[in-house]
Specification:
Blueprint (H helix, E strand, L loop, with lengths): L2 H8 L6 H14 L4 E5 L2 E6 L2 E8 L2 E5 L9 H4 L4 E2 L3 E4 L1 H5 L3 H12 L2
Antiparallel strand pairs: 1-2, 2-3, 3-4, 4-6, 5-6
């Protein structure tokens, strides 16, 4: 993890840190070779030319960079979390209702080969 990404993470507000830590843990568990940097002023996981951006906002996390498609993808199951064309807004309350396996599917849609 680069220093800028670590600084961003260290500054996350306490009400959003558990959700960020949960998603970060799932990403690193599933893709331990992913590099965490800061890109566009947000933590960005990079792996073999693919990227997943995870930013903290007032509502929780915004997730950018996943590959969309298929009737069984994450957004098809949770359309209420999609905001505009390419953003998922994940609040702590919404995340509490979503199993780790589903979040891993979202991560894999962005970072898996």
């Amino acid at each position: 993890m680069d220093a800028a990404a670590q600084d961003y993470i260290d500054a996350i507000a306490p009400q959003h840190r558990p959700l960020f830590d949960r998603l970060h843990g799932l990403i690193m568990q599933s893709h331990p070779d992913a590099e965490l940097t800061l890109s566009y002023d947000m933590p960005t996981y990079r792996l073999e030319g693919r990227k997943l951006h995870v930013a903290v906002w007032k509502h929780g996390l915004s997730i950018y960079g996943w590959r969309q498609g298929g009737d069984d993808d994450f957004v098809s199951r949770h359309p209420e979390l999609k905001h505009n064309k390419s953003t998922i807004r994940l609040s702590p309350d919404a995340a509490a209702e979503i199993a780790d396996g589903e979040l891993l599917e979202l991560v894999d849609a962005a970072l898996a080969t």
